[in-house]
Amino acid sequence: MTAAVILGACPHDCPDTCGTVTEVEDGRAVAFYGQVDHEITQGWLCGKVRPYLEHVYHPERLMYPLRRVGPKGSGLWQRITWEEAAAEISDRWKGIIEDLGAEAILPYSYSGTLGLVQMTVSSARFWNRLGASQLQRSICGAKIYSLSSTSCT
User: Fold this and answer.
1) How far is CA 114 from CA 11, 69, 109, 149, in A?
2) How big is the chain by its Cα radius of gyration, in Å?
3) CA 67 to chain centre
4) Residues 41-85: tens digit of each pLDDT
5) Domain definitions of the chain by residue range
6) Whose CA is closest to 11, among 42, 45, 37, 60?
7) What does the H/E/C string look like for the chain?
8) 21 and 29 Cβ atoms separated by less than 8 Å
């Protein structure tokens, strides 16, 4: 059987938007690599992205939400539904907002696979509507000035 070839783009938040190629046989990805004719990256993929198939098909990959049922570090977890997970997060956030105000919730961004849809369109609108704390959308990119000098660190 011939593998289907699917062209895509890396979902990570770096500026290259690397072109990817996924070969699929019988509904399962069997190869994943950089798109050779990509104008910028020319087939190169970073160390975070190259082993995607190892992560996707790893036997210990999380496939559903878990709730910790023991002390931190104990490794004791209970499977819960997506609805339970969303309700628990919503209830906790509502409690924080009621007790401390919406600005007590600090969105963290610029990590992992947060691309344009997640970070630019839906994320900003969601956090603004919630009334959460505002911050430059990149902790890594902010200029931080040392108190002892005028140079950036």
Assistant:
1) 7, 29, 8, 34
2) 20
3) 20
4) 899 998 888 999 999 999 999 999 999 999 999 999 999 999 999
5) 4-56, 62-100, 101-141
6) 45
7) CCCEEEEEECCCCCCCCCEEEEEEECCEEEEEEECCCCCCCCCCCCCCCCCHHHHHCCCCCCCCCEEECCCCCCCCEEECCHHHHHHHHHHHHHHHHHHHCHHHCCCCCCCCCCCHHHHHHHHHHHHHHHCCCCCCCCCCCCCCECCCCCCEC
8) no
| Total Cβ atoms within 10 A of residue 122 | 11
Question: What distance in Å separates the CA atoms of residue 86 and residue 84, rounded to the nearest whole number?
Answer: 6
| Strand 28-34 with 19-25, pairing | antiparallel
State whether the Cα torsion 34-39-42-48 is positive or negative. Answer: negative
| Span of 2-16, 28-42, 90-104, 134-148 with lowest mean pLDDT | 134-148
Whole-model pTM? Answer: 0.61
For the 4-56 domain, the top CATH level (class) is: mainly beta
Q: Check if the beta carbon of residue 115 is closer than 8 Å to that of residue 11.
A: yes
